[in-house]
Every structure is written in structure tokens, then in C-alpha cells.
Amino acid sequence: MNLTLPHLLVVPIVLPLVTAAVLLFLGDGRQRLKSAVGIGAALAGLLVAIEILRRVDAEGGPEAIGVYLASNWEAPFGIVLVADRLTALMLVLAGIVGLGSVLYAAASWSRAGVYFHPLFQIQLMGLNGAFLTGDLFNLFVFFEVMLAASYGLQLHGSGWPRVHSGLHYIAVNLLASSLFLIGLAMLYGVTGTLSMADVAAKLPLIGEGDRGLLHAGTAILAVAFLTKAAAWPLNFWLVPAYMAASAPVAALFALMTKVGVYTLLRLWTLFFSAPTGPSAHFGSSVFLYGGLATICFGVLGIMGSMRLSRVASYSIVVSSGTLLSALGMGVASVTSAALFYMLSATLGASALFLLIELLDHAATGGRGVPRPDVEAEVEPGEDTNLDDEEEALVGRAIPVSLALHGLAFIACMLIVAGLPPLSGFIAKLALMTALLSPDGLGTASTSSVAAGTWGFFFLMLLSGLVTIISMTRAGIRHFWSSANRPPPRLTVVEGMPVLAFLFAGAWLSVRAEPVMRYTSATAAALHAPRGYIEAVLSTRPLPGPTRADVEREGTP
Q: 286-318 pLDDT, tens per residue?
């Protein structure tokens, strides 16, 4: 793919890095300026991501790939950034969630700590770098950049719950990072390279004597990524950490587990596709049944949750399990539907985390709650409806802010539970259709795999039912059992991100056909990785100046 701007692929990494440096130079004050700079950088990053996606999609064909050779060194000897359809999709998703989160934080949370905006930009840098890199060691580097920033963001705002859950979060991720390094060392010992494309090209040539070591190294890598993807039983850290985090951080963290899923999807379709011979589809059953166990764990958590923040956290566990099970199926049509589901689930969870804080402020009379207006007394008559306090309901208007909160809550519930007409329903319908198609059921060559396929189908139905029951129960408590509460105050800065996420979910519903075409092309390219491998390994450095050019330039 020939990009008009050859350095466009490095912008999503350099832009937040430079922005973080600028924010550090601004010092401790100037909070409004810092917020403006952070929002502007996030908006610019989103526009760049959209432009990358547009150019990748305009190239046509499932193999449309852009390669950037850092320092002009060809793969596998130099650092390579690669943008295919999956990368562009994840960059756009990260840009949307990042922009909404930093905009919401501008209302108050960015002032709760000095380094919120620099840490937020470093977090975006790590996310974008993890999506763009074509090298396993640099994937580790960007993972650590992302995690280091997330440690500070998770503790942002202080308080014992954040410190307590944050220590668990840090310890678990440090252990996962150690496993990451061990797996990299074993993989390098077998293949002699850490370039993803080069590893994929060499895997079919590995002898039987080294194949066990190869499987052991990739299995250790998988444990590290499954921990980050919140797969059961490695996800005990997620719910306390996400519940304790501030609202904009939790909204951004809704994307964090998807990074682990993205990495597993990228590596396993590259390394263990059909042409890899004896290693083809290695670990697929683990992903399938591990994902089903994760869905069961998330469903049980939702059933036992009374707080909305806990329901939202367990919904992320359910979405991770759904994506892992889809990865274990190893079918392009299921992968396509799973990518659409990932977009919908992430946007819905991010909106829900932001909305929960607004509802909590209204319930507790927190900051920004206005003084309640004095209502005129209405003398109850024989046909007058009365509330629990035996006061007249006639003529009592629903405040606009309360109505908007309620509508936003209903929209979040529809997306997260997967009910029509929003994108969650289309995503689950596409997944179940793919599972019941000949391609999906055709992979069920054994009774155990067939049981897993049908189990996946029914668990998706069960998770939607349990989610709608739990969120309805929470909605009754927040909206119907609060007659004496003053109407909540809804500021523009806080309301815009929630509405933006919900409108994005509605846009996915309206534009489901072109989005599904894009995800179908993405899945087709993932399950036929030869185009990715050849694009990376065939890209040659740009020719440098010759001796004659240097002498000619030096001639007066």
C-alpha cells in the first residue's frame, strides 16, 4: 500500500509521546490548558487513525497492508510498524474511547492529580504502539509502556480502595510481563527471530525435535496474554480494579482487555493457521473452552451483583470470554462477527462506566447537584395518583436531566445485553448466525467441539438474559426508588462523551452492512496470513544518497 504521507503510521505513537512531554513542561497548574491540549491531541490522534483506516480500506482486497521501516532497516533486522485492516480498526476504537474519556475527565477528574494528562497520553501511546508493531519484543515494550501508565491512572484520585486493588493489579501484571519475557526467550531460541512475519514464515520449517519447545514457549506467551485479556481463572484482579478506578480511567480500561484479545488473535492466526502443518490450530480448544468458562464466570458475577459498577466490570469479563471463544472456533465468519461484537461491547461498557458515576452523583447528592425546586402542593382527589408518600403525582414533570440519564441508561443496557435495535443485538445475532452456519458447525468434527459450539451459542443467550435482569434491577433502584432525590445535574462536558459512545453504537447499527463488510475482509486476511508475511518481508528500505550525490551537494 502506497501512503501519500510515508510517516503517517508513526504519528499515533509520536503524537501522544510529544503531547505528554509538552504537558509535563506546563507544570502543576494550568489545568484548563492541559485539558485543552490533551483533548486536542486525542482528537488529532482519532483523525489520524480514521485516515489510516480510510487508506487501508481504499486499497481494496483483504491483503491491504502498509509497512513502515523505522530507521530504514528492513525486516526482520529493524523495527517495523504494520497497518492492516485489524490494526486500523483497533486504532480507531482506541481513538474514540480515548477522546471520550479525556473529554469526560476535563470536568473534574483531571484536577484530582498533577500527572493525569501526561499519563493518559502515555497510555494512548502504549495502546497504539501495541496495535502497530510488527515485532514481538517491541510488543513487549509497548505493553510495558501501556501498563506503567495504567498503574498511575488506576491509582489516580487516591483512596484506600484504589491502593488496595491497584497493588493486586500491579502484581498480577508484573507476573504476566515476566511470563511474556520467558515466552519470548523460548520462541527466540527456537526460531532465531522475534519479527512476527519472520516467525510465521519459519514455523513450518521447525523440526519435530524443537516443536515441543515451540509449543511450550507460545503457551507461556498465551498465559501472559490471557491474563491481560481477563480469562478465567486469571481475571480475579479485574473487577476490584475497574470498580475502584475513576470513571474516565475505567472507561479507557474497557479497551485494555481487548489488547490481550487482539494480541492472541494476531499471533495465533499468524503462527498457527492451516499452512503451519503439525502446529495448525494449536491451542484452539483451550481458547474455546477457556472462553466458555470465562463467560460462565462473568454471568455468575452479574447475577450476584447489585452495584452497577460491578455489573459493568463483569460485563467486560463476559465480552472477553465471548471473544476468546470466537478465536477458538478458528472460522473466518465467526471472527468477523466477533470483531463487530468487540466494537459494540467496548463502546457500551465505556459509556456505562461514565454513566455510572453520573448516576452515583445523583443518588448521593454529590458535586454539582442543584438545590431542589419547591413544588406547588396539589390537593389529592378521588382519582388522583399518589406516590409512596401519598403525595399527588398529577402535574409532576420529569426533569430533563433525569430523563436523559434514564434514556442513556436504557441505551447502555440494550448495547451491553444485546437487545434490539442497537449494535449489541446485531453483533450477537451475527455471532450466532456464524456459529450455526455450515462453516461454524463444519468445524465441529468431534462431539466435544460440537458441544463447545452449542455451549457458546446458549451462553450468549444466557448472558444477555442475565444482564438485562441485573441492569433492570439496578435501574429500578436508581430511577424508581428515588422520588425524594433532587434532579441530577448534567453538564455538557460530562454528557457529551456518554452520548458520543451511544451514538457510535447507534451508528454501528445503521451502518452495520459496510462495517460487517470491513470486518469480513479483516477476518479473511487474518485467516490467510500469507499477504501479511509477504508485505512485511518484501518491503525494502528507501535508497540512500550515493557518493556522487554527496559530492555534488558539496560542490559550490
A: 899 999 999 999 999 998 888 888 888 899 999
Which of 270, 274, 131, 142 has its CA nearest to residue 197? 270
Q: Please tell me whether residue 195 adopts helix, strand or coil conformation.
A: strand
Terminal CA-CA length for the chain: 39
Residue 383 banded pLDDT, cuts 50, 70, 90: very low
Q: Where are the domains of the chain?
A: 283-368+399-526
pLDDT of residue 157: 72
Helix, strand, coil in percent for the chain, rounding step 5:
75, 0, 25
CA 34 – CA 106 distance, rounded (Å): 9
What is the residue type of 304? G
| CA distances (Å), origin 197, targets 188, 191, 207, 288 | 13, 12, 19, 25
Question: Identity (one letter) of the amino acid at 179?
Answer: L
Q: Report d(CA 292, CA 321) in Å as an integer.
A: 6
**pLDDT grade for 61, boundaries at 50, 70 and 90:** low
Element (H, E) at 201: helix 196-202
Dihedral (C-alpha) 534, 536, 539, 542: value to the nearest 10 degrees? 180
Confidence (pTM): 0.87
Model confidence pLDDT, tens digit, residues 197-214: 888 888 888 878 888 888
- Is 225 within 8 Å of 265 (Cβ atoms)? no
CB neighbours of residue 236 within 10 Å: 13
